[in-house]
Every structure is written in C-alpha cells, then in structure tokens.
Amino acid sequence: MIELKDVNKSFEGRQVLHGINAVFYSGKNNLIIGASGGGKSVMMKCMVGLERPDTGMIEFDGRDLLALEDQALRDVRREIGMLFQGTALFDSLTVEQNVAFPLEMFSKMNASERRDRVNFCLKRVNLENVNNKYPSEISGGMKKRVGIARAIALDIKYLFCDEPNSGLDPITSRLIDELINEITHEYGITNVINSHDMKTVFDIGDHIIFLYKGQKWWEGNREDLKHAQTQIKELDQFIKASYFE
Amino acid sequence: MISKPEKTNIFFKRISDEMYKIGIGSLPIVAITALFIGAVTTVQTAYQLVSGLISKSVIGTIVSDSTMLELGPTITCLVLSGKVGAHIASEIGNMRISEQIDALDVMGINAPAYLALPKIIAGIIMIPLLNFIAIALSIYGGYMAGELSGILTHQEFVSGARETFKGFTLVFSTIKAFTFAFIITSVSSYQGFYTSGGALGVGESSTRAVVFSSVLVLFFDYLLAEILL
User: Counting beta carbons within 10 angstroms of the beta carbon of residue A148, is it exposed (0 to 12), middle (13 to 18) or buried (19 or more)?
Assistant: First the structure.
C-alpha cells in the first residue's frame, strides 16, 4: 500500500500539487485520472522519487520515502517497477538485455538463471522470439510489453504505469490493459496507473482518483464513477472530453 | 553526484566498452590528423628556413618538439572534443529525453556513476594513449614528407629530432593529455545529463559540449604551459 499525506509540490512559485492525501491499495489497479496539466505526472514522479515534494509524506507500506537514508531508499526503489510513457527501454541493448538489466544489477542469479527468468517474463507478456531484437526493431505495443517484462523481472511490490496506452491502437491498448490487470492481481502488486483513457478506467480501474488543477477532486471505484459523473461538473467534463479525444 | 557503482563487474565491463569506443573508435581520425599535421609542419618549417646557415636538421627538431609539446596533445584533444565530446553528450542527452535516465533512477541506480564515470575513466586511460600514437604518427608524417619531397634526408631528420629531445617534454605532453581527457569526458557528460527539450535540446547540448570542452582545453593548455614549463 502506498499512502500520500498532505503532499504539496510547486515549480518556480506555481503550485502543481495542493495537499494531496491519497491511498493506493495492494493488489489493485489504482488509477489517477485527470486532464493534462492537472498534476498526474508530477504526482507519479513524486511517488517514484524523480521529484521531491515540498512538504508531505509518501509512505510505501509504512516507510516514508522522503525520510529514508540512501541505502534504505535504494532498497525501496528495487521494489518498484515502472512502465514509462515512452517505454524508456535502453536502445543500445537488445530486448533480452533490457529485461535482464535489473537482474544483472540487483540479483545474484547466474547467466543461465537470468536467461530463464527473462524468458519467463517475456513469455508472461506474450512475447517470444524477440530476444535478440533491439527496441528500434519492434512495434510500440511490443515495446510496452518489454517495458512491463523489465518492470516485473525483479519481484516488485509496486508498479507505476505512466500513460500505458499512449500511442497505441485501441486493440493493442486493450491487450496492454488486460496484461497489466492480470499481473497486478496475479502478483498482488500495488499498481498505480496514470491515464486519461476512459476505456482503461472503466475496464480495469479498481480504485480511481480524479485530479483537477492539482487537487484531489474525487475518489472511488469504477461503479461509483458513473454516478459521480452526474454530480461533479469537472469530472463530467473530463469524461465527456475523453471520449472525443 | 557520483557514488560507488552498484556492481563492480558491470562497472568494469562498461569501462572496457567505453575504452573501445573512445580509443579504437577515434583511432582513424587521430591517425589521419596526426600524419598530416606532421607533414604540414615539415613543409612549412622548410618554407620558412630561407637561410642556408641553418642546418636542415632543425626541421626534425621543430617537428618532434612541437608535436610533443603542442600539436600532439592539443590538436588531438581538440579533434576529440568534437568526436568524443559530441558523442558522449548526444548519447547521454538522448537517454535523458527518452526517460532512460529516469528509468535508471527509478531502479535505484546512480545514473552518473553508471553512465558518466566509465566514460571519464575510459577517457583518461585511452586519450593519453591516443596522444602517444598521435605523436608517433605526426613525427612519422613529418619525416615522410621531408623524405618524399626531398626537403631533408633521413639522417638529418632523425639527428634533429634526437638532438634536443628531453624526457620531460613527453611527461608534459602526457599530463596535458590526462587533463584534456578529463575535461572532454566530464564536460560532455555534464552537458548530456542536463539536456532538456527534445531532439533540439540534444543538438544544443552536443554543441555546448564541444564548445565548452574546446575552450577549456585551450585555457588549460595555456595554464599548464605557464605552470609546468
């Protein structure tokens, strides 16, 4: 479980996050939705440690990320996997080397064990016979899957997905959603997804947080969302606008 | 901030990969530059020696001394500022804009230690070696130009080159190469890390890497000469 307590963040005097309090549950797809510029990415960057909040606490199962010493912080980070919007695969490495990278850095596996684990992860994301290809030689959907395989190569507890469907066709988007959903429930991962794809929200959103102008505007599950849409003007506008994107 | 590398074996593998890229990858351009600089120095020195009272062996002295003192380390490193510096800045810069450095950070890997440190170490090992090669080839280029064009004989060139040779000249040249290697690799890595703004930003950081490292090479060239000579 990840808990944010009164998190504030500003850039050059412009406040981007206003006192965010939120909980992200284990074994669930926790979605952060909201319009571009609403603070979703900044919130996720604060959670993974790429940005430091001005004030507040971010707890990973009771461990305050902002108060941890270097080694303890590195230990927490090794429990984190992240699927980046642009996949962030290392373009000088093959698919196999990309997935093996965290294993080489942090595990004590030998080469044969690593290869087995890589093949398992690639098979888990329905990718085979691409081990020796470079990221530039595979499609966008395949890159996302390699990104997921790399994220789950170590036994992670927390998965962060930044716009997992961006740039993908609707069919591939649904496949990626299904895959993320399966992995989250299968491994009991605390999954946090940034998205403004309403299909994703209604398909796999177990717990949803709506950010509006850097504030948590609404929180609930996908069943509540339809009802909330009729009650909250900003949420209604966002959902309707999302369908026209 | 650079910290202790996560895994020593991976760190050393990265250093050897970078040594290959910086050393072997730069060898052709360094060799061509050095050969022609030596040849041109011989021809131009002969052109300026109009007095018959001066021995032609002076050409060998001038070519070897100027190569070791200045042309070898400085010109080689200016060329490498362009070749190696731009490569380092664009490689790291591209990793920055495509979130690959963020991916390293999220994994808990110290990105400067993983990316920049092996390049800096590889640079300060390989660039002085390239400097020795450049010196040798430049002197050889000067000798060949003199011999082929009939400016001076083999004996005249060799006796001139040997006449005023001082071991410290080579030491000074090596100190310069070490210093310039550190400047090129560290400045370029820094520029790469602080890239922003997409493909345009990568171009800008590569340009800044080349300009800043070239200017610093020239500045330290003067500074070291003032201090050590």
Answer: buried
CA distance A42 to chain B (A): 13
Would you give the distance in Å from CA B215 to the centre of its chain? 13
A94 plus A70 within the same structural domain: no
Closest-CA distance, B179 to chain A, in angstroms, reads 29
- CA angle, A113 as apex, A110 and A117 as ends, to 5°? 135
In terms of residue numbers, what domain contains B180?
Answer: 8-41+54-228
Phi, psi at A86, each rounded to 5°? -95, 20
Q: What residues of chain A lie within 8 A of the CB of B7, using their CB?
A: 104-105
Nearest CB neighbour to B106, from listed A48, A85, A89: A48
Decide if A98 is inside a domain.
yes
By Cβ distance, the residue of A70, A89, A102 closest to B107 is A102
A92 min Cα distance to partner chain B (Å): 10
This model of the complex carries an ipTM of 0.88
> Does residue B48 belong to any structural domain of this protein?
no
What value does the CA radius of gyration of chain B take, rounded to a whole number of Å? Answer: 20
Sheet holding A2-11, edge to edge: A14-24, A2-11, A55-60, A63-64
What are the phi and psi torsion angles at A84 (to 5°)?
A: -85, 155
How far apart, in whole angstroms, are the C-alpha atoms of residue A113 and residue B29?
43
Domain total of chain A: 2
* A84 part of a folded domain: no
Range of the structural domain that residue A35 is part of = 2-79+156-243
pLDDT per residue as tens digits for the range A119-149:
999 999 989 889 999 999 999 999 999 999 9
Nearest Cα neighbor of B87 from B138, B131, B122 is B122
Report which DSSP code applies to B49: -
Domain tally for chain B? 1
pTM (predicted TM-score) = 0.88
For B116-155, what is each residue's pLDDT tens digit?
A: 999 999 999 999 999 999 999 999 999 999 999 998 899 9
